[in-house]
Amino acid sequence: MSEASKPIGVRSVLIVGVGGQGILLASRLLASAAIAAGFDVKISEVHGMAQRGGSVVTHVRLGTKVHSPLVEMGAADFIVAFEKLEALRWLSYARPGATVIVNDLEIPPLSVILGAERYPTGITRRLAARDRRVVLVNAQEMAQSAGNARCANTAIMGVLARCLGPGIADEHWRAAMGDIAPRGTAEVNWQAFSLGYTYDSYG
């Protein structure tokens, strides 16, 4: 990982998924690491649908000076999706050329379970339109390799850390993990994060 912090421009990150996937913890990890690295950070968390199975989205913006916590539609530099349909649902927030990090996981919403709708096909292809860069990862596999299947969220954040570049140093991420991870899980979460960071398929 990076040895020292270097300046990065203002970045707008949308982290999306469904309740129970640890989206709020992931957004706080990013915010905490960025603050430790000396950035101004604004964060907005949507809690209303955070029950298991409901759509959850958090906005995180970091830079030298950030005036608003909300990512405008069409302005996100990164969409970090913990589930494939959620990536598609929030895609309108991505700017042209944005990076879309997608967990290769399908969780059918209630409408699909009840048969009222079908789960969309061809999601990865649709995400890649307008020159967007799509990074498809199997976060569950990474988490299991680290020793705890519940660490998929921190594995995905490791992928984001790699894509963000050297603006936030290794020690800032590690310190944030110690502060944010549930008691007794910092080390296994760090292992999952490290597997995400070293994931070698960023095409």
Please give a handful of descriptors for the protein shown:
203 residues, alpha/beta, Pyruvate-ferredoxin Oxidoreductase, domain 3, 6-stranded mixed β-sheet, 8 helices, 22% strand, disordered N terminus
Question: Can you tell me about this structure?
Answer:
With 203 residues, the protein is of the alpha/beta class. It is 36% helix and 22% strand. It has helices at residues 23-36, 84-89, 110-113, 123-127, 139-146, 152-164, 170-180, 186-197; strands at residues 11-18, 40-45, 55-63, 76-81, 94-103, 133-137. The chain starts with 10 loop residues before the first strand and ends in a 6-residue tail after the last helix. Mean pLDDT is 89; it is low at 1-7.
> How many domains, as an integer?
1
Mean pLDDT, all residues = 89
Beta fraction of the residues?
A: 15-25%
CATH superfamily: Pyruvate-ferredoxin oxidoreductase, PFOR, domain III
In short:
This protein is an alpha/beta fold. The chain has helices at residues 23-36, 84-89, 110-113, 123-127, 139-146, 152-164, 170-180, 186-197, and strands spanning 11-18, 40-45, 55-63, 76-81, 94-103, 133-137.
Topology record:
Elements: E1 11-18, H1 23-36, E2 40-45, E3 55-63, E4 76-81, H2 84-89, E5 94-103, H3 110-113, H4 123-127, E6 133-137, H5 139-146, H6 152-164, H7 170-180, H8 186-197
Helix pairs in contact: 1-6, 1-7, 5-6, 5-8, 6-8, 7-8
